[in-house]
């Protein structure tokens, strides 16, 4: 047998061979460490979800660390766009109360109210009166008939913003022949004032289209509470949407609508003469109010009054006795029983909501 020579990498015990051996071990250890870290990262990125029907908490999670059910402020954030319905079981209704002189009534307690759904009385489970921020859309009439009133209308809008919650946000839609976004969502009075300074009045009145556009725009709102403020002097004579289509949109939108109506008592057209009734119907169905302006110089005072109302509403919560998820319209009626010594009071609240489908 022929003995083949062995090729030596280096002398026995030499530094070069030892270096290669050390390098090999370093590579092995590095691969092992990387595999271990990857496994640990996988465990950290996983979210443990208990199978349906199980309630066992993870072994490392103490029982007192369980999160409460989403029925409060967190629940509001989890369900954007539905102020009157917060989740599958809770209905919240914003309420305004006035006396016979149309003055805002504050200081009432939970026991002063009753809530009915489809004529069945419901048990009130939550009650609050707080100045929560609101997303507000301002709908400004820029039709030709507003020419002599536009300066006062702009002033009233700025007064409304200045007396509102500093955390409120606003957008402005102007309309004549068609609605147009003048200013997108902002909390800056200066930005809105600068944009309002550039608009002028002219042409006809697409009031229904403008309100509909405002309700659609509200889908982008940050706050759970939502309201529209309409400043107009007449009825509609240009819109593509019908009154029926708009009322259906109001029902599903959960946006309160307020209006300052600068109406002409000697309006020459049927549309203008129907303007007050149209706005009042839409506002009341949404839980808001329509204020008729008899003196143009009172516009700013009325705007401030609406701002005060939005900051002093009661919010009544109840769990409906009918939990069917049928998507049907459910009528809501809020009644107030005045404490001894108070006159009969008037309640403004939404007229109902659509039940969830799932």
Give a description of the structure.
The protein has 358 residues and is an alpha/beta fold. The protein folds into two domains: 73-129 and 313-352; 134-310, von Willebrand factor, type A domain (Rossmann fold, 3-Layer(aba) Sandwich), CATH 3.40.50.410. Helix content is 30%, strand content 23%. The protein contains nine helices and 14 strands. The chain has helices spanning 15-45, 73-78, 150-162, 189-196, 207-217, 243-253, 270-273, 275-286, 299-310; strands spanning 91-98, 113-117, 120-122, 124-129, 134-141, 169-175, 179-186, 225-232, 256-261, 290-292, 314-318, 329-336, 346-349, 352-354. The strands form three sheets. It has a six-stranded mixed beta sheet with strand order 7-6-5-8-9-10, sandwiched between helices. Strands 4-11-1-13 form a four-stranded antiparallel beta sheet. The protein has a four-stranded antiparallel beta sheet with strand order 3-2-12-14, with no helix packed on it. Strand 2 (113-117) and strand 3 form a beta hairpin. The protein is globular and about 50 Å long. The model is unreliable at 1-24 and 28-83 (pLDDT under 50).
Key words describing this protein structure:
single chain; 358 residues; alpha/beta; Rossmann fold; 2 domains; six-stranded mixed beta sheet; four-stranded antiparallel beta sheet; 9 helices; 14 strands; disordered N terminus
Q: Return the domain count.
A: 2
Multimeric state of these chains? single chain
The CATH superfamily of the largest domain is von Willebrand factor, type A domain
Largest sheet: number of strands, sense, barrel closure: 6 strands, mixed
Work out the radius of gyration. Answer: 32 Å
Strand content: 15-25%
What series of H and E elements makes up the topology?
HHEEEEEHEEHHEHEHHEHEEEE
CATH topology of the largest domain: Rossmann fold
- Mean pLDDT, nearest integer? 80
